[in-house]
Structures are given as C-alpha cells and as structure tokens.
Design a protein that fits this description.
heterodimer, A: mainly alpha, Hypothetical protein af1432, two-stranded antiparallel sheet, 2 strands, B: 2 domains
C-alpha cells in the first residue's frame, strides 16, 4: 500500500520533470544573465531546507524548501515571456536541488520520504505555471512593472503562492489518509488545524523574497526566510511537547501494570481500540485526543486498591468496586487541574447505558466508548484470536442497550471486522 | 521584559527617586535626539509603528520554559530607528507602553515608559553614530543597504539590549535588592540572542518598507509568520504547563496510596530547586532537580499497600524490598524522554556520600550531582516532618543535623548550599498528613540518621567517617 502511494506522487513528478526537460531543450532557453547568483542561492536554500523537516505521523513537510521554491517560481529571474520555458527552468532547478538533498539524506542513512518531496516539487511547478503561464501580461511581467503600487504587487504575490501551498498540504493529507486508512476529509481537517499556521508563514515568505530582491538580491533569500525559520522552530517545539505529554500520560497508564494491578498492556490496547472506534463515530481530533488520554488512564484508580483485582479485569468486579476505582482515578486526574474533561469521562466510565435511556442522564460519549472497549479487552484478555473475539462480542451483545451503547458496539464491530480482514 | 516590583525590601522612596531620575534621563535623551537629528518626517510611519507597538504590548506573552522570548515591540522599536529617526523611535517606545495600562502596576508603567523612550532614543543615536543612513537612501544596492543600514542597526540593537538590562537591573536592585551585576549578566545572557534575531527581522521589515516600496503593508508580511510563531510558542508553554501539572498526578497517585506522604514530594521538589539555584546550576539542571525531587519516591507505588502503613515497622526482608524503590522508579519513568535527566536524580537519591547507600553503593563524587542534591533535600524535609517517636525538627535543628552528617551521609558542598538556601527562604510548608509515621516504617525510610539511634538519645551521631578514607 505504502509503496504504491509513494509511486503515484513520484510518477506525477517524473512526468512534470520530463515535460520540463522537453520544453527546455525545444526552446533552448536559459537563465537570464545576471540572475545566476539568485538562482543558485535559491537552489541552495531548497537543498538546505530539505534537511530541516517537520515530521508528524509519517508525513514530513519542509517549509523552508517549499518557500524558496515558490520564490524561485515567482521571481522575475528566468527566461521571461517564453511559454512554459520559465516553468521548465524552475522545475529543473528545484528538482536538481531536491535530488542533491535526497542523495545526501540517503547517504546519511535518513528517511528519504520521496513522495513528500515530490509533492513539494509539484507545488512549485503549479506556482510557476500560475506566475508565468496565466494571464497577459503574466504575473511576473506585471510584478516587474514599476507603475503598479508595491503593496498591490505584494498582495498579488501572496495570492499566487496560495494554490501551490494548498496543493502540497492536500497531497500530503491524501497520502497520509491512504497510509493510515483514514477518511480524507478527516485528515484534511486535521492537516489544516495543525499545519495551517505554518502554511501561512510559507505563503508570505516567498513574496518577501521576491519583493526584497531588487534591493537585496540573493542576500534577501536567507534573510527573508528568517521569520519562517522562527515559525517552524516554534511549531516543532509545540509538536515535541505534545509528544512528551503523550509519553507522560502513557507512563501514568503503565503504573498499574508495573505495580501488578492490571494485565500488561491493557491500557495501551484499550486506548488504541478506543481511538479507532472514536474515528468510526466521526469524532474530531480534539475529542479523539481526550478519548485517548481517558482510555490510557481509565484504570489508574486501581492504584489505591489494597488488594489487586485478579488480572485487573474491572468488568468482572462488583459495580460498587468499579465505581470506586473510577472515582479514585478521576480524583487523581482532577488533581492535575488541566485534564478536567478526562476526569469527567473517568467518573462516568462504569455508568450503564440504560441510565441514558431511562433517566435521560447525559453520559459523555467518550465514557460510553471506554466502557465497551474496556469490557472487550478484559473479556478477550488482549487476544486477537477469532474465537476469543467472538465470545467477547457475544457477551457484550447480551448487555446491548442495557449496559452498553448500541452505536458504540456497532462501531467496535466494524473496526474488528476491518482488522480481521487486513491481518 | 517589564518590571514586576515585589513587596520585598524597601520599595518606597528610593524606587520613586530612581524612577524620577530615569524620567529625567528620558527627557534629556529626547531633547538630544531632536537636537541631533530633528523631528521625525514620516508621521504616518510613526503612527503605524506606534499602533503596532501598542497592540503587541497588549498581547500577554507567556512562553514559560520555551527557551525563547518573542517581543514584537522590540522589532517595532528597532524598525523605527532607520524609518523615523531617533526622536521618532523614542516616541514609538513611549507610546508602545500605553498598551500595558490595566495590566501593569502604575509605578512599573511609569518606569517602563521612560525606559522604552531611552531605549528608542539612545539606540537611535547609536545608529547615527555608527554611520547609519538617516533618511531616504540615495542609491539602493545590497552592499550599501547592509553597510549603511544593516550594520548600524545591529549596533543599535546591542545598545538597546544593554540599556534594557542595565535599567531593569537598576530598578530591581532598588526595589527588591537583587544584586546589580549578576542581574545585568543574567538579562543580557537571556535576552541577547533574541535581540540579534530582532535586529535581523527589523532590518528585513525596513527593507520591505522603504527600498522595496511596500510601505506599511510590509508589516503584514513580516508579522504574519511571527504571529504564527508566537501562537505556537503560546500553545507550547500552555502544553508544557499542562504537562508539568500532569506529572504531579504521578505524585498524587502515591499520596492516595499512602496519605502519610502528603506534601512530602512537593517540599522535596522545592528544596531541591533552591539548592540547585544556590549551586548555580544551569536552569535545565535546576528544573531537573525539582522534577526529580517531585518524583523521587514514585517507586514506592510498587510496594504492597500493607508495607506503606505509617505504623508498620519494616522487617529486614521488607526493608530490602523497600530498597528496590529507586530502581523501580526508573522503570516507571522510562520512555518519558524529557525526564532522562531527572530520572538520574530519582535513581540515586539514596546513595550516600560515604558509599553506604543504595542501589549501587556509589561513593562521593561518583554519585551524580543531582542525586546528591535530592538526597540532601529529602533528608532535610524528612527531619521537618513529625514522627510518632519524635516531634518535627525546627529548621535550625534540622540544618544542624544535616551539617553534622555532611561528608558521611551527604555531600558537604550540597549541605552548605542548603544552609545558604534556608537563610534566604522560609521552610517549605508541610500539610498535616494525619497520623505521623513510626521511625522504621516505609514512610520514614528517608530519615537521615539510622533510626536505631533515636530511641537512645536525641543527640546526633555522625556515621563513622573512616569508611570514606579506606
């Protein structure tokens, strides 16, 4: 699956490179004299920018490389006026710079992520087509005309940069959706929420390079990328702390394993399956994160028990004990002062579904998911074997509507069926 | 950076005097800038920059532990220098402080206004002195821009950083008694790198504004990515705080299991941090020491609840089991990459200076420093807690015990750092944890002196020192 995904983007990029070669050779055009330095520095920025990637969930972006490529595509440095030839120059320079970076990555033993790199090349090609090959006069010629006020030019440049940046984000989201078997709209939304800010910085960096070029020349390239470098640094720090936060929650969830209260890996399995079920129920990213944390911590309350429950299987414990464990866990989590909604979920994780039906109680959806998935994992003891799964589901079906939310059980069934078919 | 005068020391008349003097300097500076360079010519630019400075001051910045600060107003102030001249810069500086109204105390506000005017004015003069181009540029090419604007701007930038540090250190010296020289060094060290970044960004903004002809719209292009960075850093520090709060949940878990330990970990964390400060450790190490202090007894969670009862005296076999808690903690905290440093402190907090500790029996400097720090803090806090068979020690008594044990049980250097710290701070508060533990119980395992001596006399017997000199 993964291999095919990489190939699709790479093939598209290869087609673009071949077209560029052909039109380049056919026209015999070349870089305008005096602009060689600018082109070389831009190429260098692309190569170096490829080394500074931000990787999230197997999808890597290189904002600096993309911004430098977009600037190259929009700058009036290449064979102006020749149909498609300027774009050919841009694609060839960008492609060559990326090849150097890719070779360096391979030599250094780092992951190449060819698909993501080619997505950036396609974005640069699109920008170049918009800048050189659309409109009469095209954007590059129009930009060079000193009669137009510069602020208007700045806006036009930003507008030209947007489609390329959007294309790159969409391509990345698409490949990630395919790799992780996630619905595309969901991944697109997530991509926008997490990468939207950085995309904004990329969209402005290209135009800054183009606008300062008459005054600063090639020096403007590294300087103009400064704000973007800062933004990327900040976003990376943010991503890093998110992942350490996750590590901490995971460590908390292992406490009951290590102290012999629960079966090893139970919390992690419940969290993983809960998130899948949550996705099936079309939960948003934020809600999924809270669900994951709550699922990881759902047995934390057992730490306060004097005598461990056999196997830590709360589904077999008396309802009052279950509730006490839930309340103790919620108390610990509430003590942090920052995970109140998770604590709220934990309090309700043992409440039977009929309370909703009979008393109209407002049961958090997360709590309903955790109740079902926890029961499933306790009953199968983590075994993926077909008969264990079937027996567990049969038992859960007995409590359908009374103990468990039917919608959640349906979602779990869907997830399990899909899992069975892929393994 | 702004002033937050605390109530310590004598904030009264001397502070007012200094603020008055700073205002006098500010007015002199403004007069000097007008004499030297005249009034600003681009009033539109003054208005735009003033408004931006005002807005950026209005947004609170809370980048706790992010390692960088991002003060948009510094960029605005620096851009003002080549754009509207020294007098304009002083004006922009003073105006930008208006955004703090309602957020800062009036005294601090008055001081900050004068300080920003001085920063803008003097660094503007430094720019001119360094050969900076004052008005519109004659010929625009990369070389002349770099030499006539970029380089002088960098010098102005450094001057601004220095003035900021000196004036802040001065007011802190007067209002809270913080040592002047150390404070200046600290401020320059912590803001210096940021100022170089501000210099580059404001140079870029100036180039966009004037030579590239984009005008005020250039601020949109430059500030958009900066706002993104600012937003991400804000998110970062919020998550970092959330994360630190979550770590305390680990401690809450021990306290639910063993209520007699309530407050102990927090107190050890506080004292560990104080000692780290006294030892002038880098801030990352001080933080690690605090975290290690917070989590040092996390391994106790692995013990059966029965053993953790405050009235249960451990049998020798049980005591051996207890000694595994520092190693168990390492297993629990494994996988939290940013805790790596703190885990060292947790694992080694029962090593003794004379090599009689556990788990590894390390000797003297062989014990990682952070482990020695947490050990001292742990022993000290244990003495401050009441036990069933002895009342709580006072701070002075506890310090005496710790000093007597320096070199045998504890690193004497760390113990004297503790003594210095305690001359500066009130003793950490320990909440009433219910029934006090009996000496010899798991809860009291951190008692600095072997518990057998307690029944005999209240005198402190240092452990035999010959072990050290073997």
């Amino acid at each position: 699956m993964n291999r095919r995904r990489v190939n699709l983007t790479a093939v598209a990029a290869a087609v673009v490179i071949c077209c560029a070669m052909w039109s380049y050779l056919a026209a015999g055009a070349s870089i305008a004299p005096g602009m060689l330095l600018f082109t070389v520095v831009a190429g260098l920025a692309i190569t170096l920018g490829e080394g500074i990637r931000t990787t999230l969930d197997n999808s890597s972006s290189a904002p600096i490389s993309l911004a430098a490529g977009i600037a190259l595509a929009m700058a009036p440095v290449l064979s102006v006026g020749e149909f498609m030839v300027a774009t050919a120059d841009v694609v060839l320079v960008t492609g060559a710079a990326m090849m150097v970076a890719g070779a360096a990555r391979v030599l250094a033993g780092r992951r190449l992520a060819l698909g993501d790199m080619m997505a950036r090349l396609l974005a640069v090609a699109l920008t170049s087509v918009l800048a050189h090959d659309v409109g009469n006069p095209n954007q590059v010629v129009w930009t060079s005309n000193p009669a137009h006020p510069r602020w208007l030019v700045a806006m036009a440049l930003v507008a030209t940069a947007i489609p390329g940046v959007a294309l790159e984000a969409a391509l990345r989201a698409w490949s990630r959706a395919r790799a992780a078997h996630l619905p595309l709209p969901f991944v697109l939304r997530e991509e926008f929420a997490s990468g939207g800010g950085l995309a904004l910085a990329v969209v402005t960096a290209g135009p800054i390079i183009v606008l300062t070029r008459p005054a600063l020349g090639a020096v403007g390239i590294p300087l103009s990328l400064g704000p973007l470098v800062l933004a990327q640094f900040a976003v990376r720090r943010h991503a890093a702390v998110r992942s350490t936060y996750r590590q901490t929650i995971a460590a908390l969830s292992r406490l009951t394993d290590l102290t012999g209260y629960t079966a090893s890996g139970h919390a992690a399995r419940v969290a993983d399956l809960s998130v899948r079920v949550g996705r099936e129920l079309t939960m948003g990213t934020e809600e999924l994160t809270r669900l994951e944390y709550a699922a990881l911590l759902h047995d934390l309350g057992q730490i306060a028990l004097r005598v461990p429950i056999p196997q830590g299987a709360t589904v077999l414990a008396a309802p009052s004990d279950q509730q006490r464990i839930a309340d103790d866990g919620a108390r610990i989590v509430r003590g942090t002062g920052v995970l109140d909604d998770v604590a709220h979920t934990l309090e309700f994780q043992t409440t039977p579904y009929r309370q909703v039906r009979e008393f109209g109680e407002n049961l958090p959806r997360n709590a309903r998911v955790i109740k079902v998935v926890n029961a499933f994992d306790d009953l199968t003891e983590g075994s993926p074997a077909k008969d264990a799964v079937a027996a567990a589901m049969e038992r859960i079906h007995l409590g359908l509507g009374y103990e468990y939310d039917p919608a959640v059980v349906d979602a779990l069934q869907t997830v399990l069926t899909r899992r069975a078919s892929t393994v | 950076m702004k002033v937050n005068a605390s109530s310590k020391g004598r904030p009264g008349t001397s502070t007012d005097l200094v603020i008055g003097a700073v205002w006098a300097v500010a007015l002199l500076t403004v007069a000097w800038t007008i004499v030297a360079a005249g009034l600003p010519e681009r009033w539109l630019a003054v208005c735009v920059l003033g408004a931006l400075g005002l807005l950026s001051k209005g947004i609170p910045k809370r980048f706790v532990r992010s390692g960088i600060t991002l003060t948009l107003s510094s960029i605005v102030l620096l851009t003002a220098i080549p754009l509207v001249g020294p007098a304009g810069a002083a004006l922009v500086g003073a105006v930008s402080v208006v955004g703090q109204i309602g957020r800062t105390r009036r005294q601090a506000l008055v001081f900050n206004m004068a300080m920003h005017a001085i920063m803008g004015g003097l660094s503007g003069l430094a720019y001119l002195w360094a050969g900076g181009a004052p008005g519109p540029l004659q010929n625009i090419n990369p070389m002349s821009l770099l030499l006539d604007v970029g380089l002088p701007l960098l010098i102005a930038d450094l001057v601004q950083c220095l003035i900021n540090a000196v004036l802040l250190a001065l007011i802190l010296r007067v209002s809270t008694g913080t040592p002047f020289g150390a404070q200046v060094r600290f401020l320059v060290g912590s803001t210096g790198a940021g100022y170089i970044g501000y210099g580059l960004l404001s140079f870029l903004l100036f180039v966009l504004w004037v030579p590239a002809g984009v005008g005020p719209f250039g601020t949109v292009l430059i500030l958009a990515p900066l706002l993104v960075a600012r937003w991400a850093l804000g998110q970062y520090s919020e998550e970092m705080q959330a994360h630190n709060r979550t770590l305390t949940a680990l401690v809450a878990a021990i306290e639910i299991k063993s209520p007699s330990l309530t407050g102990h970990s927090a107190a050890v964390a506080t004292v560990s941090g104080w000692i780290g400060d006294e030892l002038h450790l880098p801030s990352a190490d001080v933080e690690a020491a605090e975290t290690a202090g917070m989590l040092h007894d996390i391994g106790l969670l692995g013990l059966p609840s029965e053993l953790l009862r405050p009235d249960h005296v451990l049998t020798p076999a049980e005591a051996d089991l207890l000694k595994e808690h520092s190693g168990a903690a390492a297993r629990m905290l494994a996988g939290i990459s940013f805790l790596d440093r703190a885990v060292v402190g947790v694992v080694n907090h029962h090593e003794r200076f004379d090599g009689t500790g556990y788990p590894a029996g390390l000797l003297a400097e062989g014990i990682p420093l952070i482990g020695r720090v947490v050990a001292v803090a742990d022993g000290f806090v244990a003495l401050l807690s009441p036990r069933l068979d002895r009342p709580a020690f006072t701070t002075a008594q506890a310090l005496e015990v710790m000093q007597a044990l320096g070199r045998s049980a504890y690193d004497p250097v760390v113990v004297s750092a503790l003594a210095r710290a305690m001359s500066r701070h009130e003793a950490p508060s320990l909440p009433d944890a219910g029934s006090p533990a009996v000496v010899g119980s798991a809860v009291a395992h951190d008692e600095p002196v072997p518990f057998t001596t307690w029944g005999v006399s209240r005198e402190v017997e240092p452990a035999p020192t010959d072990v050290v000199h073997q």
